[in-house]
Amino acid sequence: MIHELRTYTFFPGKQGEYLKLAEEVGRPIRGNDYGLNQGYWTTEIGTLGQIWHLWSYEDLSEREVLRQKLSKNDAWKNEYVANVRGLIQKQEIRFLNPVIDFTPPTTTGNIYELRHYQAQTGRAPEFLNHFREIMPVRRKYSNPVCLWQDEAPFPNNVLHMWAYANMQERDEVRDKAGADPEWRKFLGIAPTLLSNMESIILVPTNFSPLR
Questions:
Q1: C-alpha angle 204/206/210, rounded to 5°?
Q2: Distance from C-alpha of 77 to C-alpha of 12, rounded to nearest angstrom
Q3: In this structure, is the dihedral angle defined by the CA atoms of residues 187, 103, 151 and 95, taken in order, positive or negative?
Q4: What is the residue extent of each domain of the chain?
């Protein structure tokens, strides 16, 4: 299984127009016939005017086959792509290998925190080993949606996503985890393997599978 995380940054004021086209035109045309959509979000905290969407494929070969088929879909090209192309300032793609199973939350109305860490060169596997080992402790406070290692374009990146009912719950969960001696021990070791840490808060669109 491979995940593709796509980030679109829009020209100021154009995000709403894109969302309308995505909901009413793009998603109905594409459906899940060309890759399975796992989630669709806007940025609440982080770079504004962005959309993040997550897709899954069996592997990169399947992705290539399905993307080729999609590129030949006339409705996709003429009714959707032709209309959104001018709204998008920048597109970014990450190919992610899930390290743990992708597990959607059982609740809706959530916010999502996506944390991406840049490991020191060659240290991502070591960091991930520590993270996997401590995960049962962290799960006592909340469950991750997924943990990934970046395949490309950032081979030393580690990403993980968490769902919370709201920012207050996020703060409460993180405070509880931060007081756990085992988690604190992990925090004393694992961050020394990293060179940069970033976090963004994402809000699901009304057509996102993850809500």
A1: 45
A2: 24
A3: negative
A4: 2-94, 99-204
Q: Give pTM, 2 decimals.
A: 0.94
In this predicted model, what pLDDT tens digit does every residue of 157-204 receive, in sequence order? 999 999 999 999 999 999 999 999 999 999 999 989 999 999 999 999
Residue type at 22 in one-letter notation: A
* Amino acid at the residue 202: L
Question: How do beta strands 50-57 and 88-98 pair?
Answer: unpaired
Q: Which fold has domain 99-204?
A: Alpha-Beta Plaits (3.30.70)
117 contacts 158 by C-beta, under 8 angstroms: yes
Looking at the domain covering 2-94, what would its CATH class be? alpha beta
Question: What is the token pair recorded at 68?
Answer: 């080729």
| Closest to 29 measured CA to CA, from 38, 19, 21 | 21
